[in-house]
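thought: fold this chain, then report.
action: predict
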Amino acid sequence: MTSPITPTPSEDAALIEACRHKSVELLRTNLSPQGILAATPGARAESRGYAAIFGRDAAVCAIGMALSGDAVLEREAATGLVTLARHQANNGQIPKFVDLRGQEADFWYLGCIDATLWWLIALDFLDGREPAGGLRQNLAPGIAKALQWLEAQEHQRFFLLQQNEASDWADIMPRSGFVLYTNALWYRVKHLYGLARMEETRANFNELFHPFSAVLAEYRRARLLTHYVKRKAKNRDLYLSFVNFSFFGEEGDVFGNLLALLCGLADGEAARRTLHALDRAGIADPWPVRVVCEPIPAGSSLWRAYMSRHLQNLEWQYHNGGIWPLVGGFWVATLAQAGERDRANTELAKLARVNALDGWSFNEWLHGRTLAPGGMRGQSWNAAAFLIALNAVREGSGAFALRPRWSGSR
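observation:
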């Protein structure tokens, strides 16, 4: 499938600038006194719970708002993170979302692991920027508790986080055990906060999620985990979406693979292998990007009954192969960070075009085959991800370029 539109470079440039303006406008519309809402408020958004401050959404938005060039957004970038901090659990966990009407924190059915990771990443990003500087010092007790909560879920030989299924951004997908997306973020947090065993985390990440090219450790648990993968896996170019005791995911988790590259977990050869595999899967054709390469069908051993809830996660829908402009922003940032800036600019224009559909709807996701819109309009993190991608194209490295590690104490 190819895009029916062949724009000129000047048309692309005008569209990118229009999307920058519309992204800033949408984020300003979605601001509340307690931070950025997940989507534009309204009856449907409120009935579906989107008129709330979500941990992962607010963190991605904070980064985009800080890069927006808009004084209001820059000033308010940290507000949602502070609201989340006020509702932090006693054990250190950051909520999945905060319902502003009841001032109630929600932590999801099986616990939401990535809100805490994204919160820490966003705090560090804002810490050295005005007017949000000093966040790490101001929120130091909460940061220490959040890190302690995450460390309590780290395997003490693999130094990777463990989680139950359906407990990260793909919250009706069966990924469990050691999950690619989550552990890419964990490595990033370890780098930013100078946590112990960072290099072991990186080595074990590559060994477990891509055991086909890794040298197996002597630890017998690693040999057992990868034994099943090596016998059964078909797709050997992408990182596996998760690895559990005797089963694993090879649907091709696009977000997890992109974060592995953005967060510095892949060397040059692994990065090239991964990008080529994503290209072969056509993840950005016609719009950036489909979030899995091969959806999990209802007859698969990985299928779960909850995936058909509201007929939402069927093949090529939602997290099971839908097109997410949010992840499209990370695709563009990955291309830019890999040195493919011309291509990144072309994909940025495509990302602007998908956000512009249906009168600049900034729709949550589209069907991966029919391209029909699904989910909620006016998604804040679509706008933020576009601004993050735009910054990466213009700067060449962007928000996720690895900086020298913080050397202070917790």
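thought: worth noting. The mean pLDDT is 92.
final: tokens above.
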